[in-house]
Fold this protein.
Amino acid sequence: MLTVRLSEGTEARLERLAKRTGRTKSFYAREAVEHFLDELEEMFWAQEAVATWEASDKQTISAEEFEAKYGL
């Protein structure tokens, strides 16, 4: 179970949306969290991957250099 405090404006918008569509506020809150959670997980995974790569001190090459090196 989770309790979320929303600003009055956000709460009002959510209430209007729920009434217009016949869905519950909980439905839309759950949809928003699930959608945004995917984006957050991706963003933090990418940041972690970049930080790991940068900490590895490995060298990078351009696509052109890669193609030339491997005859592609």
